[in-house]
Amino acid sequence: MEETVKKLNFLEEIIEDDLKSGKCSSILTRFPPEPNGYLHLGHAKSLCINFGLAQKYGGKTNLRYDDTNPTKEDTEYVDAIKEDIKWLGFQWEKECYASDYFQQLYDWAEMLVERGLAYVDDQTQEQISEGRGTVEKPGIESPWRNRSVEENLRLLREMKDGKYADGEKVLRAKIDMAHPNMMFRDPILYRIKHAHHHRTGDKWCIYPMYDYTHGQCDSIENITHSICTLEFDVHRPLYDWFIQTLGIYPSHQYEFARLNLTYTLMSKRKLLELVQKGLVSGWDDPRMPTLCGVRRRGYTAEALKMFCDKIGVTKHDQLMDIQLLEWCVRQDLNERSNRYMVVSDDPIKLTVTNWPAGVTEWFDCPLNPSDPEGAKRKVPFTGELLIDRADFMEDAPNKFFRLKPDGEVRLKYTYIVKCNEIVKDSDGKVVELKCTYDPSTRPGNGEWRSVKGTIHWVSTRYAKEIELRQYDRLFTLADMSQVPEDKDYKDFLNPQSLVVEKGWCEPAMLEDNSGIAVQFERVGYYVKDSDSTLEHPVFNKTVALKDSYKPE
Known about the structure:
Blueprint: H1 10-21, E1 28-31, H2 41-56, E2 60-65, H3 75-87, E3 95-97, H4 102-114, E4 118-121, H5 125-131, H6 149-160, E5 170-173, E6 188-192, E7 206-208, H7 210-220, E8 226-229, H8 236-246, E9 253-256, E10 260-261, H9 268-276, H10 291-297, H11 301-311, E11 319-320, H12 322-336, E12 339-340, E13 342-344, E14 348-352, E15 361-366, E16 376-381, E17 384-387, E18 408-411, E19 416-424, E20 430-438, E21 454-455, E22 458-459, E23 464-471, E24 498-505, E25 518-520, E26 524-528, E27 538-544
Parallel strand pairs: 1-2, 2-3, 8-9, 10-11, 12-25, 14-20, 18-21, 23-27
Antiparallel strand pairs: 4-5, 5-6, 6-7, 13-24, 14-17, 15-16, 17-22, 18-19, 19-20, 23-24, 25-26, 26-27
């Protein structure tokens, strides 16, 4: 059979053309987060693209922090970003900061002033915004636009020296107030902020704007392919204008569609609000789309990379189904997760009436059925067990293949039992099933009798109580970009996104130190939470065992 050749995405086509034409001899990309929050799933896509392309074509990737807004940035975020990138399995070439280039950026600003291409404006932010006009209407020139070069240089230096208050003056590029691209209507280059910077301290009180900073930083580092999300395509002409006007290394920007995911919000500002208002437990709450959040939930780096590969790289925005991400998590964990039996909240006691009193039989059970000859765990079987309430039905339909009156099931890995008697409490609730086991049905005895149902169980004598945190989607609205105007996004928080229950597990599970989510047999995948203690183990639901979703 012929092997299918995977079609190149548009970025790969561009890079291959650039390498063939000699436009560049090697590839250098960059990942430029602002250290004002934690990375989320959207950043995972960008990381996979930037690092993945560099790896594919034998290039390198810089990590560069866009740290030009000192009031919102912190070393906490700097460290968290590095941890997340390493967890995904990527290693940057150089660790850089926009603040590394503050002096060079300032020198270029003076150069623009000297060439009559920048001026100091005394207008307020509101006046500047109003004066920009609209798409249909040209902007109005600032009354300070035609200051002399000498006056502009003096004022800029006084701004840098701290003579003026925040918002009192700004430095603007002098381009074209009637330009059809409103980005060119004298964009702001520097604003005054008397704020302590996490790296430069109090050295600077003026800070460059993103549009003035980004392209020049790329140029300083000789970035060959500056890859960002689609909303920055309107910024690209200005990116090019600064580089061409300054006559520096011609980095170029390319845009791809950002990740939009159903039932998910990926606005750092709104995620921060959820944290600050206590609507989630923190940035690493397992319901959050942050990388530290999904890691705590049990998602693997391999699953995220598989997901990013599945969704591909396009120039068209689309809403991806979160079930595809969950499918990828399930596919990855199915191959690697150890299996254990866990009975959840409100179990039913199952008494094996013909089992010898006080006897425990230990079964060697595979940790992963994909490797039946591999590692085993010891599972204790006794005469008193717990089963899930959902695995018994008193008035069962014909196609109910679990336990029912006078019915038989196999207790997983062990014997077939038959339900002979039902015990109820004073309210009529079933609290105990009295069963008999068939000794000849022990696996490996040479005699095999088949029954249609197999259920999981734990021994009451050896079972360990655990806390189960049953996580669901954080929001009830599928497309969180379509929140009605008369609603707030928080109106769509899912009140059932976290349900805490008890569970009982086989003892071997608490000795599992694999660091990977385990499979609760017949139920789903769960991972031990960082809140766990020896006395109080806590497990987070990662993803259900099965789903109807079938990826294309």
